[in-house]
Amino acid sequence: MNGETSDAVGAGVSTERAEPAPLGRRAQTKRANRTAILDAGRRVFAGVGYDAATVRDLVRESGLSPGTFYNYFPDKQAVFRELVDEILRELRPRLVRARAESIDAAGFVRDAFAAAVATLLGDPDRFALLQRSTSAFRSCVFDGEQLTLLADELRTDLESASDAGTLPSFPAELMTAAMIGTTIEVGALGSQMGRTPDEIATFLGTLFLSGMAGFVTP
Amino acid sequence: MNGETSDAVGAGVSTERAEPAPLGRRAQTKRANRTAILDAGRRVFAGVGYDAATVRDLVRESGLSPGTFYNYFPDKQAVFRELVDEILRELRPRLVRARAESIDAAGFVRDAFAAAVATLLGDPDRFALLQRSTSAFRSCVFDGEQLTLLADELRTDLESASDAGTLPSFPAELMTAAMIGTTIEVGALGSQMGRTPDEIATFLGTLFLSGMAGFVTP
DNA sequence: CTCCAATCTGACGCTGGCGTCAACTTTGAT
DNA sequence: ATCAAAGTTGACGCCAGCGTCAGATTGGAG
User: Fold this and answer.
1) d(Cα A99, Cα A105) in Å, to the nearest integer?
2) Residue B218, pLDDT score
3) Fewest CB atoms within 10 A around its CB: which of A52, A151, A190, B183?
4) Of the candidates B218, B126, B206, B211, which has an alpha carbon nearest to the alpha carbon of residue B174?
5) CB contact under 8 A, A174 and B203
6) Burial, B169: exposed, middle or buried (Cβ in 10 Å; 0-12, 13-18, 19+)?
7) Cα–Cα distances in Å, from B131 out to A115, A140, B83, B138?
């Protein structure tokens, strides 16, 4: 609890470092509370689904009180959004990496699905959230910026692959929609019927890879 | 579930004919009220979506009163279920016909998607309902018997086509899930981005037809 | 140690939607 | 024309969940 108040000293330092715990008790609980609410969100949304969940559920589960909740988030949607954003922020770089590391189009398609499925279905709570709140997930996802970015990146990749002749030419927007939508859909249904993430990813990869081949090149 | 009370009279007649209006005033309003509620449901669900809709909305829109509503349906879910069932009851025979009339696997796949898309997206209210209540639609659909039947028929067809060698062999359950899910998904997203039902159906047909080819035959 | 500001708390009032039911209207049989 | 049964009506009581705010608590600067 000091580090920075002594301005003379910190002059050139600080702003970058966040590690050595210059965290005051205040900031600590603040962080802890926020985390508690988000954790509660993960559990509650995974448990009863977004629609059925109430702010009170989150409050109860977080161990805080209603007033405090509203100090951190304006409503349950904000919590949900944050959770979804978190997932997408994790997914995006994974997809970028899958693209960068794969040598051909086939590899890219397969690896991208593998990354997506791993990210979305890897963790049990996340999986449950996806299963029980598909629609909320979808609408949150579609008006947030993360998915727009993700979809843009994907579409761009698809288009440049098409242009380069590596992949045939198809309606990129529809294909993007299909890939994202089908992943969510088959992910949920597939795991409901007991398929492993690997099986699901392989299935999706095969389906889309060949599916794309069905479109005539320009 | 009605029209039979006039047992003495109808002796030889009735059950088949519904036209000549042997309908008492009583039965007439009964039918009219039920219809009014279902119509209200179509409009309301299409307008604000299932989750946001309230029984009061249905009541208001139908022009009846709360008490009357509860004479016909126990809650809004029952109304929604009925509407969904209606759609599926229409879809099922269309799919059967598509299969019967098509000469090869390619035709079957394309025609089936065309039929599905036409049924689901043909009517504006239906389209809106699908767009705004995807999740409710999905869950209603998945615990109702109609989709089970539909999915079973589809899976059976796919499996026998696989066995006959007309189509390659693939995980039929996953493929079924993918086809149904992707249709809903791409249908909603595609129409949101202004694609016509035809374009959507063609896209889906092409994607899946070639997609299936990617799986090795046994 | 003192004290202000930041933060937490939970009881409170409010809203909106739910399902009911006693009173009323309509139907159709006699 | 009469009347019982069927059906309709909407005001009513109820309750879950919301967001707030006055007062209690806590952190940390002096």
Assistant:
1) 9
2) 53
3) A52
4) B211
5) yes
6) middle
7) 28, 15, 15, 11
Backbone angles phi, psi at A117, to 5 degrees: -65, -40
Task: Determine contact, residues B35/B68, Cβ cutoff 8 Å.
Answer: no
CA distance A10 to chain B (A): 53
Eight-class DSSP state of B216 = P
Tokens coding B196: 């016509």
Instruction: Give Cα separations from B50 to A64, A209, B138 (angstroms).
Output: 32, 36, 11
The whole-chain average pLDDT of chain A stands at: 82
Instruction: Kindly state the percentage of chain B with pLDDT values over 90.
Output: 30
Calpha distance A47→A39 (Å, rounded):
12
CB B153 within 8 A of CB B96: yes
Of A8-17, A52-61, A115-124, B92-101, the poorest mean pLDDT is in A8-17
A121 close to A201: Cβ distance less than 8 angstroms: no
Q: Residue A214, SS3?
A: coil
Contact A199 B134 (CB under 8 A): no
- Which among B80, B177, B194 has a CA at the least distance from the CA of B129? B80
Single out the residue of A142, A29, A141 nearest to residue A80, CA to CA: A141
SS3 B113: helix
Which whole number is the average pLDDT over B198-210? 91
**What is the rounded distance in angstroms from the CA atom of residue A162 to the CA atom of residue A139?**
29
Q: Which nucleotide is nearest to B70 (CA to C1')?
A: C19
Residue of B nearest to A136 (CA): B135
Residues B188 and B171 sit within 8 Å (Cβ to Cβ) = no
| Dist CA A152 CA B57 (whole Å) | 39
**What distance in Å separates the CA atoms of residue B73 and residue B80, rounded to the nearest whole number?**
10
Per-residue model confidence as pLDDT tens digits over A163-197: 887 888 888 878 877 887 788 778 877 877 888 88
The three-class DSSP label of residue B194 is: coil
How distant, in Å, are the alpha carbons of A116, A146, B105, B187, B213 from that of A214? 23, 30, 15, 19, 9
User: Model pTM?
Assistant: 0.79
Rounded to the nearest angstrom, the gap between the alpha carbon of residue A92 and the centroid of all alpha carbons in its chain is: 8
Report residue A7 CA to chain centroid gap: 39
List the helix and strand counts (H, then E) for chain B: 11, 0
Distance CA B110, CA B116 (A): 10
Q: State the pLDDT at residue B157.
A: 81
